[in-house]
Amino acid sequence: MTKLAPNIQKYMTLTDCPYCHNTSATEVANNPRIVKCNICSLYRPLPRINKDGQIFLLKKFNDEIDLAERINLLERGNGERDPAADKKL
After folding, report:
1. What are phi and psi of 52, to 5 degrees?
2. For residues 47 and 16, what is the distance between their CA atoms, to the nearest angstrom?
3. Residue 43 forms beta bridges with which residues?
């Protein structure tokens, strides 16, 4: 998987609480920066990722991992692992 840090930083723009949308918070950790909402007490990263960033990450994940190639152990029916199939993982 490629490094996402340079690409994802531009999407880290939201500063409000995702639960109550309040912007006032108390810092509880510095690296990474974690805050506690002063209204609902939800802990969250600050800033947090916006919707465009979530879409970017989902597309990147889906492009890099082909779930059709993954082995579905439930399709075998007997619940046992196939050693030959495990080598493909």
Report:
1. -65, -35
2. 8
3. 36
| pLDDT of 63 | 77
Q: What secondary structure letter does DSSP report for 45?
A: E
Domain 8-65, CATH: 2.30.30
d(CA 35, CA 46): 6
Are the beta carbons of 37 and 55 closer than 8 angstroms?
A: no
Residue 60 identity: K
Q: What is the pLDDT of residues 17-56, one digit of tens each?
A: 999 999 999 999 998 999 999 999 999 999 999 999 999 8
As a whole number of angstroms, the distance between CA 50 and CA 37 comes to 18
Mean pLDDT within 56-62: 85
The residues spanned by each domain of the chain are: 8-65
Q: Report the C-alpha gap between 13 and 48 in whole angstroms.
A: 6
